[in-house]
From TrEMBL:
The gene is tpiA. This is Triosephosphate isomerase. The active site is at residues 101, 173. Keywords: Cytoplasm, Gluconeogenesis, Glycolysis, Isomerase. Substrate binds at residues 11-13, 179, 219, 240-241. Involved in the gluconeogenesis. Catalyzes stereospecifically the conversion of dihydroxyacetone phosphate (DHAP) to D-glyceraldehyde-3-phosphate (G3P).
Length: 262
């Protein structure tokens, strides 16, 4: 079994302007001393308009946390009004980019094909895509969640080479748990994350499947993160609401690192 370093990714969604972003990054850095970064990777995912400011703080203060973007265009450049190229994100020093978040799949009608195209664009520009999958409540209640997530993962990674698959991060985010306070049980998270890892082994190979990080997302906070990331196949968390609170985000990152609390 590969030794996967946990990843805590704070998806700020459409919150905080660039001045507020600077403040939050500084507070997180103050609350989470550098010693934790040996045991956990921590990244913040602000709105596009904040990224340059976040870069300035991270570079200027030599912070160990990384940053990324919430989306990218499938295209390189050109007449795509409102879109942001992976080339631009890479130039800004982004490490990660979220693709296929359920809010994009639902509100912007992003299909698996679109998610696949964006995943390819991310890899082209040496960004690590955090590829999101997750079922809605009806599918969960029908007991079809495992098959649904496997199909979504296969669609979102279709045709990628084993080498490309080795460079992605997967996030399992049940839609019914996002922003609702209704976190999946640790066993629920483990069930789907294990199935996704088995799927990665089918799409690539077992060694790669053992090395790819599979995150859980959905109402993660400092109280529940320990049990969730304690699961065999859960390698961290994609955190929404709790990532906007510096102390809570630092605490849950420290817990993912195995403590002690800062
Ligand atoms: O990307 C993050 C997820 O959508 C989870 O959001 P949440 O922690 O506010 O439930």
């Amino acid at each position: 079994m590969a030794n996967r370093k946990p990843l805590i990714a704070g998806n700020w969604k459409m919150n905080l302007n660039h001045l507020e972003a600077i403040g939050l990054v500084q507070k997180i850095a103050f609350a989470l001393p550098t010693k934790y970064f040996d045991k956990v990777d921590v990244t913040v995912i602000p709105p596009f308009t904040d990224i340059r400011s976040v870069q300035t703080v991270v570079d200027g203060d030599k912070l160990l946390l990384t940053y990324g973007a919430q989306d990218l265009s499938a295209h390189d450049s050109g007449a795509y009004t409102g879109e942001i190229s992976g080339a631009f994100l890479s130039k800004l020093g982004c490490t990660f980019v979220v693709v296929g978040h359920s809010e994009r799949r639902t509100l912007h009608a992003e299909t698996d094909d679109v998610v696949l195209a964006k995943t390819k664009a991310a890899l082209k520009y040496e960004l690590t895509p955090i590829v999101c999958v997750g079922e809605g409540l009806e599918i969960r209640e029908a007991g079809e969640h495992v098959a649904y997530n496997i199909a979504q993962l296969k669609g979102s990674l279709a045709g990628l080479s084993a080498d490309e698959i080795s460079k992605v991060v997967i996030a399992y985010e049940p839609v019914w748990a996002i922003g609702t306070g209704r976190v999946a049980s640790a066993a629920d998270a483990q069930e789907v994350c294990a199935a996704l890892r088995t799927t990665l082994a089918e799409l690539a190979d077992q060694k790669i499947a053992d090395s790819v990080r599979v995150l859980y997302g959905g109402s993660v906070n400092a109280k529940n993160v320990g049990e969730i990331v304690g699961q065999t196949d859960v390698d961290g968390a994609l955190v929404g609401g709790a990532s906007l609170k510096s102390d809570e985000f630092a605490t849950l990152s420290a817990i993912a690192a195995g403590g002690p609390l800062p």
